[in-house]
Amino acid sequence: MKQPELGNKVLELRQSLGLTQAELAERSNVSLRTIQRVEALEVTPRGYTIKAIFESLGYSPRQLAKKNAKTGTRTNWKKRIDDLFTHIRELFNLKTNAMKKLSILTFAVALFAGLFFVNLSSNAQNASILGTWKLVEQNGKSLPKGYSQIKYITPSRYIWTLTDAKGNILNGAGGTYEIKGNTFKGRADMVMPRMKNFYKYNTKWEINIYNNKILVQKGKMRDEEVVEVWERID
Question: Fewest 10 Å CB contacts: which of 9, 106, 192, 198?
Fold first, then answer.
C-alpha cells in the first residue's frame, strides 16, 4: 500500500477506534514520529512496519496484498527498490555529519546506480531468497547489542551493510550472484573503503531456507569456516 492511500487508511482506522497517535504508537511498537509522518503522507515505511500498524488496528489488508501480487515483477521490484532506498537512507542517517563523508556517499550512489540497472527477470530457483534479511547469529554468536547486519537481495544483485547502535553504517558491500541448486556464488564489485581487500572477492555459500523465513548459509570467509543464520524482515 502506498501514499496517500496508506496514510488515509491509518488515519481512518485510528479515529474509528478512538485512538490517539501516541496510543497507536504504543500498541504497534512503532515510533510516534513514524505514525505522524505516515498520516501526514510524508513517508511509506517498510513492509513489516505497515503490518505492525495495521495489526494493532485490527485490519488485515489481505485482499490488497493479493491484488498487488498480480501487478507484475517490474512494478513489485520498483517498490522494493523504493523501500530499499528509504531503509538505506535511514541507516546512513542522512541528517548527521557522518553522511558528509565522501566515501560513504559515493558508495551509496554506486550501489543504487547498480540496482537501477539490474536484470528484473527471476526464476523459481532463486525466488525464495529475494528480499531483506537480518543476521541473527554467526558461528553461534550474536552481534553486539544495537549492531545489525542487513542483506538485501534483488533478482541479480545483493547488498550487505553493517550498522552500529546509533544507526551509522560502518561497512558495506554489493555485487552480483548466481544460485545453482543450494549453492550461492557472489562476487563483490562495490565495497566501502574499509573493505577494499574484498573488492572482486568471490564468495561461495551452501544455503538452506526454512519456511521462507530463515536462511542458513555455510561457507568460508578468508579460509575461515562460517555458519550464519539470517531472518527475513521484509
Answer: 106
**133/151 Cα distance (integer angstroms):** 5
Give dist(CA 230, CA 149) in Å, integer: 9
Statement: residue 116 has pLDDT above 50: no
Go through the chain and tell me how many residues it has.
234
Cis peptide leading into 4, omega within 30 of 0?
yes
Residue with cell 524482515: 233
In whole angstroms, what is the distance from residue 118 CA to residue 154 CA?
Answer: 8
The answer to whether 106 and 174 are in contact (CB under 8 A) is: no
Render pLDDT for 76-92 as a digit per residue (tens, 0 to 9): 544 555 555 454 544 44
The answer to whether the predicted template modeling score (pTM) of the entire model surpasses 0.70 is no
Q: Are 129 and 153 in contact (CB under 8 A)?
A: yes
Burial 34-56 (b: 16+ CB within 10 A, else e): bbeebbeeebbbbbebbebbbeb
Nearest-angstrom CA–CA distance, 158 and 175: 6
Q: Is the pLDDT of residue 159 over 50?
A: yes
CB 161, CB 146: distance < 8 Å: no
CB distance 195 to 208 below 8 Å: no
Cell of 182: 543450494
